[in-house]
Amino acid sequence: MTDSFAVSPFGGRGLARAQFALNEQILNARKAAGGPGGGVAGQGDSRRSKVVEDKWKLIRAVTEAKAALGLSDRTVAVLEALMSFYPERRLDLARPLIVFPSNAELSLRSRGMAPATLRRHLACLVETRMVLRRDSANGKRFACRNDKGEVEAAFGFDLAPLVMRAGEILRLAEEARQEAAAIRMLRAEITIHLRDMSAILKAAQEEGRAEAGGLAAEFEALSGRLGRNTPRAELSRRRDALLSLRARLEAEFLAESPGQAVETNLNTPETSSNAPEISRKSPKMSANDAQNERHIEGSESEYPLTNKPVDFEMRDRSDSASSPEVDSCQPARPNPSVEPVDLTLVLSACPQIRDYAPNGIAGWRDLAAAADLVRSMLGISGSAWERARRVLGQAGAAAAVAAILERIDQIQSPGGYLRGLTARAEIGDFSLKPMLSALAVRGLRERLCPGQAA
User: Fold this and answer.
1) Are 115 and 107 in contact (CB under 8 A)?
2) pLDDT digit string (tens) for 72-120?
3) Are 91 and 48 in contact (CB under 8 A)?
4) Which ranges are annotated Basic and acidic residues under compositional bias (predicted)?
5) Which of 35, 37, 164, 342 could form a disulfide with 30 if both were Cys (CB 3.0 to 4.6 A apart)?
6) What does the pLDDT read at residue 7?
7) Pairing relation of β-strands 51-52 and 132-134?
8) What is the largest CA-CA distance in the chain?
9) What contacts 353, CB < 8 A, 6 or more positions away?
10) What are the domain boundaries of the chain?
């Protein structure tokens, strides 16, 4: 009954041609499906195309394709609230699909949305042809029932346009999933290229290769931070540039000057004349003959993979005292006691650092490796990083870089910021725990009250 005439909106709003055309399409589709006012129900694919078996799967598809459909997350929340007022999971175009909730109840199911905001998102759903208004004479939403309790006429929002667009929505959702997967692969590939090239440049610097070191400036230019919503085209350009640079870097690094290979083989610690004699009791080796070299298996790890606080500063001092190769040319500096930090606190305060650890962060070694990668991406120089490791310790320097990554939108110069923290730590004017605790509280506040965090 209402499908015939309840088309024009209540109040001063005019009737759009698109809305009238959509109403005609709904009428024709219902007639083909055997609904009210039209002939025999269709069969085969034509009949199945007018039925949605699970309305919540369709809402999930709308959520995945919201960008292509021109919807915001709050508009999708309002659509989900409207869908909750339809009692059945199955949506059949041959049956009435009009829901008629009150503004108060609809606001409650929309997580307490304000009335003005609710009206704006309802208008967006109508404009994007997700629902159709069926306004009554006085603009109220209600249903007229007969003596048997069956609905004879209903005024509210018709969900038929959503069912008619179900095929299109599912296709857009699949495309959105494929786009998201491609973006994840691109970001992972970029991270791996940056990590590998950073290791190559470090090895080249240690070997004194000026040819490979000359490409460090280009590497730093391509190591800028990627935004959360960086488009796929920009990611592809960054990946292609990194591929080109990596090919040149590997060619320079693998190129050997005349006699370099022989000199390298003669000066290795194992064959040097000053090397100690190898004991006949060799360590246990794996017996995989497919590899060119034997792998030494050891059960003891240098750093325990636990979440207990580890004082890397004490380890650094003991290693420096026992090593004969300590740099004696370094200027004297204060030796403050660096308070150990807890790995759990670092990860809870700085969750973004997990994105740069492909295998997860199970201990301090994983955190240090991720921080080394992040600092090169942020443009922090090797000298600033090494100085921070000497002053703060390996754990403290890694935690400081993780904190800088968490607040990168507020820090203009990450390298200068790290040098400032290191200088304050040298005079005993800086502690990591208050900074990490503040970041943890800030993150908790953002999760509980989005947009109100300090």
Assistant:
1) yes
2) 999 999 999 999 999 899 998 888 888 989 889 999 999 899 999 999 9
3) no
4) 310-319
5) 35
6) 61
7) unpaired
8) 106
9) 346, 347, 361, 367, 370, 371, 374, 401, 402, 405, 406
10) 2-164, 183-253, 312-319+334-448
Six-digit token string for 23: 């109403």
Spell out the SS3 assignment of the chain: CHHHHCCCCCCCCCCCHHHHHHHHHHHHHHHHCCCCCCCCCCCHHHHHCCEECCHHHHHHHHHHCHHHHCCCHHHHHHHHHHHHCCCCCCEECCCCCEECCCHHHHHHHCCCCCHHHHHHHHHHHHHCCCCEEECCCCCCCEEEECCCCCEEEEEEEECHHHHHCHHHHHHHHHHHHHHHHHHHHHHHHHHHHHHHHHHHHHHHHHHCCHHHHCCHHHHHHCCCCCCCCCCHHHHHHHHHHHHHHHHHHHHHHHCCCCCHHHHHHHCCCCCCCCCCCCCCCCCCECCCCCCCCCCECCCCCCCCCCCCCCCHHHHHHHHHHHCCCCCCCCCCCCCCCCCCCCHHHHHHHCHHHHHHCCCCCCCHHHHHHHHHHHHHHCCCCHHHHHHHHHHHHHHHHHHHHHHHHHCHHHCCCHHHHHHHHHHHHHCCCCCHHHHHHHHHHHHHHHHHCCCCCC
Q: Does the pLDDT of residue 402 top 80, yes or no?
A: yes
